[in-house]
Q: What sequence folds into this?
């Protein structure tokens, strides 16, 4: 199996059968070897830098009903909130002062935030913080909306494909959702010129090893600039409340393989990983991740953006929090940096 890791390291490509073989027959030795090679690549391209992004979860209203997600429309138990323009700008002000040079606005698909409302927010953020990168993650929108966001100055967009396999997608979502329009959105985002991020959950219900191999093939073809990979974690008020969480080690292995596949990709150590394993984010960095997205949302709403159970809600809204994170990175030989870190 080391031969396959070496091939990936040298050529940054594998066939679907090879991905399947690696994932299916993985053992500790192969996984550790993949981590080592992934670190080698990260160090070559990024030295020992880990980029910090300030995450602002600005609405948990959502019109969609994804079976896995805690803020799905059908979850009547969730207390809904939205941050208005002035609240979002306050998060940016605090984040900017703490040194963050990227803001990520993420939310459910909330019809309140029309293009017009989003554009007002975008203009104001870009006007006040011209040196900061702005990333949006607000789901599927029309080509025209994406184009307007880009023209207003948005730099990056995150939209996970969730799973590349159409049948599997169908088992995770209601009938009105399909991954064909979602993939089209990704193509549109890239064509418009965003640094585009996609990604998937590891261990989502009904997922097979073959599905993961398909995700890696999709990523090979799409070549995203950013890639979010985190374990599925059940949420108690969803149809998947009884499903087991994804495997941490497999998630880390996929991060390492992704680093080998896309050497320059911006690869976050996800919050979901940090939720399942207290050392998850450090382990992710040691497996090739190079981005961390601390939460800048106001403390009183943070618990309400509950995509899954026990989501870590420790914020980095204080200088002390940022210093602690920097310290935990330093302890493993990495440096938390605040530069924009464009692709
Ligand atoms: N509405 C936006 C943002 C979604 S939330 C969009 O559609 O892109 C960001 C990501 O959280 C999702 O893409 C999904 O992959 C992940 N997520 C949702 N529920 C989850 C769960 N139960 N466990 C782990 N990750 C989850």
A:
């Amino acid at each position: 199996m080391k031969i396959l890791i070496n091939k990936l390291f040298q050529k940054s490509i594998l066939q679907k059968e090879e991905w399947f073989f690696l994932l299916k027959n993985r053992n500790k030795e192969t996984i550790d070897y993949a981590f080592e090679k992934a670190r080698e690549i990260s160090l070559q391209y990024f030295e020992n830098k880990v980029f910090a992004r300030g995450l602002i979860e600005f609405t948990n209203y959502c019109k969609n009903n994804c079976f896995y997600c805690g803020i799905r429309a059908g979850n009547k138990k969730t207390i809904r909130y939205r941050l208005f323009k002035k609240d979002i700008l306050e998060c940016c002000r605090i984040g900017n002062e703490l040194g963050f040079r990227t803001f990520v606005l993420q939310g459910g698909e909330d019809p309140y935030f029309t293009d017009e409302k989003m554009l007002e927010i975008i203009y104001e953020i870009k006007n006040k913080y011209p040196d900061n990168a702005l990333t949006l993650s607000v789901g599927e929108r029309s080509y025209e909306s994406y184009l307007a966001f880009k023209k207003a100055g948005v730099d990056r967009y995150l939209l996970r494909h969730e799973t590349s396999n159409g049948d599997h997608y169908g088992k995770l979502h209601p009938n009105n959702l399909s991954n064909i329009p979602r993939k089209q959105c990704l193509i549109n985002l890239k064509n418009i010129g965003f640094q585009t991020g996609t990604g998937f959950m590891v261990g989502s219900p009904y997922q097979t090893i073959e599905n993961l191999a398909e995700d890696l093939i999709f990523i090979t073809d799409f070549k995203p600039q950013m890639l979010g990979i985190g374990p599925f974690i059940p949420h108690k008020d969803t149809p998947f409340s009884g499903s087991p969480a994804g495997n941490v080690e497999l998630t880390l292995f996929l991060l390492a393989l992704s680093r080998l596949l896309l050497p320059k990709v911006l690869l976050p150590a996800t919050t979901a990983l940090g939720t399942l394993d207290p050392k998850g984010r450090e382990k992710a960095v040691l497996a090739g991740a190079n981005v961390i997205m601390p939460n800048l949302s106001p403390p009183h709403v943070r618990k309400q953006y509950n995509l899954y159970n026990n989501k870590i809600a420790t914020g980095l809204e204080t200088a002390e929090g940022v210093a602690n994170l920097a310290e935990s990175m330093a302890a493993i030989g990495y440096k938390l940096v605040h530069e924009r870190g464009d692709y």
About this structure: The longest strand covers residues 195-202. The chain has one domain: 2-337.
